[in-house]
Amino acid sequence: MLQAYGSSVARLHLSNEMNNLFYGMELKSSKRRRRRKNGPVLPILLLVAIAIGVGGYFLSKFLFKNEIEEEKEAETVYAPEGYETFEWASADLSGASADNDSGIYGLWTEPKPTEQVSVEPTDTEEDIWMGDFVDTRERVKAKGIYLSSSYINKKLDDAIALIDRTELNAIVIDIKSDAGYITYRMDYDVAKEIGACTSTISDIEATIKKLKDHGIYTIARIVTLKDPVLADKKREWALKNKDGSIFRDSAGLAWVNPYEDQVWEYLTEVCRQCVNVGFDEVNLDYIRFSTDKGMSNVDFGPKAEEMTRIEVITEGIRKICEDIKPRGAFVSCDVYGAIISSSVDAKIVGQSYFNMSKYLDYICPMVYPSHYGNGYYGLDYPDTHPYELVYHALMDSQKVLYMLDPEENKAEVRPWLQDFTATWVSHHLTYGKKEVRDEINAVYDAGYSQWLLWNAGVIYTEDALEKD
């Protein structure tokens, strides 16, 4: 590209010189005719013009030689089918810049259909993460629903019956809720000490067995960094303001500090306990920084000077995965849908879609149309375009994850879909059979095969589901 640019400069210079020469020649043509006997003026001028062009060409090659060589040494990344490969030197997706957020983390510009090209990166190969891990786990293409802690006892049988009647085969159950409480008497001393354990589920083993008797894939939802119980009882682990007081979000709930190692140890043990009682997968929610007002006044401690938000969240996920995967269970994370395509949002919440997917088994973007601002993806009111919103978001997902090394870990994508009506949005649709099915079809059309439905009231649109 630089060589072409240099040549263009020389050609432009030559063109200007030629124009000037011939323009002057046209104005003085009559005079030249009278002076032909004085010598071959035109041949001389042509030779001069050619010399200028040739000289400009070699000068441009000399001037841009170093830049061309550097460009050739740049890494070539894998691009999705239908896109050109893009080159950059020492690209770092975790540090996505707010000043360069065009496309996916600033990497995608002017996509053009082209033949797919794959070139091996020139970097020295590093050890493959968990390279000695022999994965004997059996994967399930999950199509599931969420069951909140407040409805576990009231609607468990109804949920099982719905799954039996339809294409559904999975259920996500609250084990550690938004309030920080654990829904069964977990055999974990720290959880007992802080009073986090409850008897909401009186017999967790019997509940898991009941679900598995119906062939249901079981997922334990664990709310992670939003934890008022742990923050109030272990104040040294809490997120604090600069004056030492505990930070609380707009709902008055406290969060724990992701820069505290003990926080990740607590979360890892909660995950272990879920695996011990028979869950097939642990699903990590709220694994991010709060977006509430007042975060600018939070003191994260000295470790925050050494690690970015994205780095500390990614590192915590990596540790949990290293512990849980060998125990036979899968690990998934819920993330904001907007972080797929916005480096600005990714840096604020600390969630890098690319980096997290290097360790997780499943990544679950919450692509609820009601949660996107007007104009997103060129849609006037996203909530009124369920198919288009979900499709665009998941096509962005394809572009990002295509860049992961296929020989190493790469999370499968299982999006959360909206099965509720967002009455609080000024321009919204009543979500029913068509809207929910449109979202599901968008998942398939974007190249994915798994999905989860969210409704906090646990009321799902059966008509939108295929019968078993």
Q: What's the CATH superfamily of the largest domain, by name?
A: Glycosidases
- Which fold name is given in CATH as the topology of the largest domain? TIM Barrel
Low-confidence stretches: 1-38, 59-125
Measured on Cα atoms, how large is the radius of gyration? 30 Å
Count of helix runs:
14
What is the second-level CATH architecture of the largest domain?
A: Alpha-Beta Barrel
Domain module count: 2
Q: How confident overall, as mean pLDDT? A: 81
CATH class of the largest domain equals Alpha Beta
What class do helices, strands and sheet pairing give?
Answer: alpha/beta
In whole angstroms, the N-to-C terminal distance is 56 Å
Q: DSSP strand (E) fraction? A: 5-15%
Order of helices and strands: HHHHEEEHEHHEHEHEEHEHHEHEEHE
Quaternary structure classification: single chain
Strand adjacency order, main sheet: 11-10-9-7-5-4-3-13-12
- Number of extended strands: 13
Helix fraction, binned, reads: 25-40%
Principal-axes shape call: globular
Largest beta-sheet characterization: 9 strands, parallel
